[in-house]
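Slide 14.
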Amino acid sequence: MSGLPIPVVPPGQMSFLAFDFGAKRTGVASGNRITRTATPQATIKAEGADARFAQVAERIKEWQPDALVIGVPFHPDGAAHENTARALKFGRQLRGRFNLPVHEVDERYSTTEAHSLGAKDADAASACIILEQFLRSLP
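Slide 15: predicted structure.
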């Protein structure tokens, strides 16, 4: 089991932008609470925080989400690893830079699922899977 708390999401948060963080590529998806569906967006291909956050800022300006969702990877047994810490740091940076709520989702197997579905862009598809999992968890 992961160490992530169950997200408390106020009813006013209706639109979301989700990220599947990676050092070289960050998948992006948009979605909303009404349809509980996610749509893949172009993957951010940038190395280094400045380049990545410049592109994140463009997406946030374009989509104007009420909140952000990030996938947090864990080992199959729920243990944290190096990328767990990187994803959590990315989430903290998103909060600090954009002053938006950030919800964290256990993303074990999202990339495997994206590949099994034949996704052309596994990063964007993984972001969709993460966001749809989050949306399904909402009351």
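Speaker note: The longest helix spans residues 82-98.
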